[in-house]
Task: structure prediction
Amino acid sequence: MNDEPWLVHQFVERAAERRPEAPFLVQEGTTTTYGEVEAGANRIARLLRGHRIGRGERVGLLAHNSRTYVEAYYGILKSGAIAVPLNTAADGPTLRGFLEDCGARALIAGPRFEKAVSQAIGALPELALLLVQDPARIEPVPAHIRALPLADAAAAERAEPPDAGLVDLDVASIIYTSGSTGRPRGAVLSHLNLVANTRSIVSYLGLTAQDKVLDVLPFYYVYGKSLLNTHALAGGCVAVENRFLFPNTALDTLEDEACTGLSGVPSTFAILLNRSNLAERRLTALRYVTQAGGGMSPELTRRLIAALPGKRIFVMYGATEAGARLSWLDPDRLAQKLGSIGRAIPNVELTVRTDDGRACEVDEVGEICARGSNIMSGYWGDPDETAKVLDRHGYHTGDLGRRDGDGFLWVVGRSKDMIKAGAHRISPKEIEDAMLEFPEVHEAAVIGVPDEILGEAIKAFVVFRPGTTPDLEALKLFLGRRLPPYKLPSQYAVREDLPKNESGKIMKQALREQA
Result:
């Protein structure tokens, strides 16, 4: 067997061949080895193929981060089918929409999703197979669907990998975008897309079999999935922590498991810095930190550097449509280029272009476009939306950015988020970053709201840090010294929290609907 992985599930196969007893997952004191995951995934693959679910068929996967999720994910891929990770916060109608959109032939669901599954499956004529913990708790099961307990896979005698006859151009996964700015769409990602991206990430992070990452991000989210795949490729370990609602509990796991890596989105680090004792911890094993999933303010980054002296902090940028990652900022340049998203990862080209496709000059603002073997082939069943984002320049991210004289990229804001107030186009990100410099601010979000005179007015939503007294007048004076008058919010709303999706991104569309 060629030692070079060409298919995503071969990450686990290779690691299991070399070190079957090595730990792959650790969750609340329970360790699962590579050999155990490999055997479990093979049994699920064989069960799927035994029910005529194979190459090119779509299989939905609905489960919290767990051994069940991991074995099902790699098992779906081993069968030749296409894995469709599903948002664990989805209700029945939303779940039905995902499954209907991709034409799912099978659904694997972990425990605690019986109600949503029951509400979703009745109107899905293409769905033929349902694997759940207890089929008796799914009511009613339509006659055209065969419902089986997941234990049937675990009880199978044969645990050898089936031959699905795949090549790296075959589709591995359909991953639905977060929908934070509109309707979720299914990004179609091949094995080549995911393998190429995984190799690049492992390369610049320097991951080895000795690395163990604390994972508080859901596996259905492309960033969370990249943590799983990168450590599988490196032969490392993933410490699953689903209790981030209690951030000090998550930090206990980080310490107790001697994790070398910690990954999160901006809200993850805002919570750790404002609502935990992160700065008091002796994280002697921690080697690196990665941040992606949206721009983190320079002030929050400075605080993270101060709280974790000597740790390598990687600021990263990416998109679901890119299989996860597009750029990274070398930690050695972090202090000098604070606020930058760095440079393109290996085997990716990033350009900044005007609306007519011209490459921008140094510091000229345009849309960030990406080319590389990690870029999706399109959105599932949606050629019109695909044509809007893919052309000869590659994938149009929708992010406005600029490139400085040293070749480093800076995100200015989302093109869809730009506020048009009178003659000005205003980036919410600049205002949000300024708000987060105010010592008492925990989180901030800025949107445009209808205004009869200006077209749009600036409205700011702010969450103050726990234990502080909200002082909007002090915040307004603070901003007045940092921003020109036309960028100052005319409306403010103080909140206890901001709406977020399961991956921790602020849902601005929800704020717009509320406003």
